[in-house]
């Protein structure tokens, strides 16, 4: 089977970056803290549900979390549920050998822990409808997952650099908005893992920028300008994302200010002097997009404040 120039270039870059992967893997393992999902679940609140055990059916009054946090928790968990698809996607790009493969498996194990904790908490605390949640899980996983940029190493690594940070922000703010101290504690713990994952990918992508600045800059721009969260295929995602944005859990302003810009600045993309040709063109496209996103975020914030003022006046 013939190998395309792009595949050959990607393979060579990954070979060059393998020492960086090993270094970042060791750093991650030295910083990651062992924790146990069962310690973040209020088991004493648990009781049987209706069904074979003839317990108490779920009703909305049993939920202690806010409606906005409820939607966000459902999206967060359903996103975690598609882990088999994410594992396949990242293992296809990174491979299963050496430090690359060790990272893939470690990352997958840590992400799986997040889903365990979230589902146990939501079920035991009766925060969400467990029947609707299970049906949504089945539908979402049956739809599967396909990476937006195929098996491109640079695009995939750029994507997770932003996505892991976006997930951290969403988890932290979901916990704060929940109104339940137990939920906030759990989401803070999960967010800490996501932050370490982001650092791994961010540092790896930073090394890629040094090794292949033009190709990497193009991948960054492609990802930023088409970015969508991995749970975008969840049933009702658009409605839930609007609720989540209106609550300030995750919106355009947070995406611009707390996710995109900090990572881009860490990579020094605005100050680089080694970009030429398509790399420079990609940076120009990125700057233009960020300006448009910043304007859209401001417009959304203004409209949100106007809505809140009208609601307050009616009350």
From TrEMBL:
Signal peptide annotation: none
Enzyme Commission number(s) from the entry: 1.14.19.2
Positions of Fe cation 2 binding: 111, 164, 194, 197
UniProt GO MF annotations: metal ion binding; stearoyl-[ACP] desaturase activity
Cofactor binding mode and count: Binds 2 iron ions per subunit.
Entry keyword annotation includes Acetylation: no
Residues the record lists as binding Fe cation 1: 80, 111, 114, 194
Enzyme class: oxidoreductase
A GO CC annotation given for this chain: cytosol
This protein's record includes keyword Lyase: no
Cofactor: Fe cation; Fe(2+)
Alphabetic keyword roster: Fatty acid biosynthesis, Fatty acid metabolism, Iron, Lipid biosynthesis, Lipid metabolism, Metal-binding, Oxidoreductase
Example GO biological process: fatty acid biosynthetic process
Superkingdom of this protein's organism: Bacteria
Similarity comment: Belongs to the fatty acid desaturase type 2 family.
Record's subunit section: Homodimer.
Identification of the protein by name: Acyl-[acyl-carrier-protein] desaturase
Organism: Actinomadura coerulea
